[in-house]
Amino acid sequence: MAEPALSAIVETPSGKIARDENFPVGSWLIRRALRPHVHAFYRFAREADDVADNPGLAASDKIGRLDRMEAVLLGAPGEDAPAAAAMRASLAATGITAQHCLDVLRAFRLDATKLRYRDWDDLMEYCRYSAAPVGRQLLDLHGERRSAWGPSDALCNALQVLNHLQDCAADYRALDRVYLPERDLAAAGARVEELAAEAASPGLRNAIDRILDGTERLIAEARLLPAAVESAGLRRECAVIVGLAERLARRLRRGDPLAMRVKLTRGDFAAALLCGLWRGR
Fold first, then answer.
1. 42 and 118 share a domain?
2. Which of 44, 54, 56, 169 has its CA 20 to 30 A from that of 66?
3. Residue 181's closest CA among 253, 119, 272, 224?
4. What pLDDT digit, counting tens, does each position of 235-246 carry?
């Protein structure tokens, strides 16, 4: 496949880094030898996400760039997709399947063209490729059993939806992309166009709360994850992340993502760490 014509490098980094996330990425709780591979996967997914979210690229260009990242991941020569090349080296070193990487690329191709989601199930199908592979990659790196995939998927999907709620106004204004399911908006008497306002209307607030109801059900399932993980460090990190998801959901219940950036505080991270270390003991 021909390389995209706009740039010698197909990746378009936004500047967002691991510490900007709602969860730790390859923290000190993870075994030292595995941390570079966690960071390689994060960088790969981050770069692909940045391509899909780049407002200056046409949909066809985004897909061409993501296709090129996939080609390099799978062995094509070239230096135009460094994160994909680094991920390929990580997969070779660890013996982990490329499927989780291919899944996230599938999700980001969808981001290039799909702007609306019908209902909760439609959104969860997207999260199956955009979010769940992140947890599965981490579990596979640690040699964990696939029985842990269910609660891991629930946790990753919950974090994805929480991020969608945080960014609902920005996604609409910059990309005309709306992850809030149309059915939930309609049931609450809200319209997509209300995402352009400076504050959430009563209807939009109701829709956000409906989506948080579903997210909290995912978090309840995710609480089973630490007990399903054998690696002590990963078990504790999972417990910390569950705590962060709980805290962010509560903040979004109280805060208005149209009026301000609803986010975790340093206190939230500290409290989740302490509770997670206890829960994951």
1. no
2. 169
3. 119
4. 999 999 999 999
The parent domain of residue 75 ranges over: 26-99
Distance of CA 187 to the CA centre of its chain: 26
Give the number of domains in the chain: 2
d(CA 28, CA 216): 28
Domain of 203, CATH number, reads: 1.10.600.10
User: Does residue 184 lie in a domain region?
Assistant: yes
Do both 122 and 235 map to the same domain? yes
Tell me if 235 sits within 8 A of 226, measured CB to CB: yes
Q: Spell out a b/e string for 172-195, using b for 16 or more CB atoms within 10 Å of the CB, else e.
A: beebebbbbbebbbeebebeeebb
Asked whether residue 30 falls in the same domain as residue 95, the answer is yes
DSSP secondary structure string for all residues of 49-79: HHHHH-TTS-HHHHHHHHHHHHHHHTT---S
Beta strand extents in 67-225 (DSSP E only): none
Residue 4's pLDDT is 42
Indicate the pTM of the whole model: 0.91
Enumerate residues 6+ apart whose C-beta is below 8 A from 165: 180, 208, 211, 212, 215, 252, 257, 262
Helix, strand, or coil (residue 176): coil
Q: Quote the DSSP letter at residue 23.
A: S
pLDDT in tens, 37-72: 999 999 999 999 999 999 999 999 999 999 999 999
